[in-house]
Amino acid sequence: RSKSLSDEENLKLFGKCNNPNGHGHNYKGCVARLLISLLVSLQIDPVSGMVMNLTDLKEYMQEAVMEPLDHKNLDKDVPFFAEVVSTTENVAVFIWESLQRLLPPGMLYKVKVHETDQNVVVYKGEEAKAG
């Protein structure tokens, strides 16, 4: 639901997802998928044998994704969504930006968010749009 639209416009644009009091989703993301994305874009460190230490990755995921989003009303509890409509696309952007601040430069390749088994958003950052 967008604050900048009328009730009629919200209903037309968002259909059954339009609800003034919000509605819920159980989004799925997968650290293994993130790691596979990292493997595509980076080389394995010859000393450690890893692209990234999984303990570090788990900490980054906890800080960037779980702490701000898990069991939260996105529209009321997450400042990012105070003025941004909480679509799955914007959830992917939020996760991208949050991880981008924590991961070493050039490490993040893409973010994939599953709203349902049928609705999946893949976001590769702003640079991907230009290409």
Automatic annotation (TrEMBL):
Highest taxon, organism lineage: Eukaryota
Cofactor: Zn(2+)
UniProt EC number: 4.2.3.12
Keyword annotations of the record: Lyase, Metal-binding, Tetrahydrobiopterin biosynthesis, Zinc
Cellular component, GO, one term: mitochondrion
Xref: InterPro entries: 6-PTP_synth/QueD, 6-PTP_synth/QueD_sf, PTPS_Cys_AS, PTPS_His_AS
Primary enzyme class: lyase
Metal-binding among keywords: yes
Gene Ontology biological process terms from the UniProt entry: tetrahydrobiopterin biosynthetic process
A single GO molecular function term of this UniProt record: 6-pyruvoyltetrahydropterin synthase activity
Pathway assignment: Cofactor biosynthesis; tetrahydrobiopterin biosynthesis; tetrahydrobiopterin from 7,8-dihydroneopterin triphosphate: step 1/3
Cross-referenced SUPFAM superfamilies: Tetrahydrobiopterin biosynthesis enzymes-like
Main function: Involved in the biosynthesis of tetrahydrobiopterin, an essential cofactor of aromatic amino acid hydroxylases. Catalyzes the transformation of 7,8-dihydroneopterin triphosphate into 6-pyruvoyl tetrahydropterin.
Family, as annotated: Belongs to the PTPS family.
Protein's name according to its UniProt entry: 6-pyruvoyl tetrahydrobiopterin synthase
The organism of origin for this protein: Tyrannus savana (Fork-tailed flycatcher)
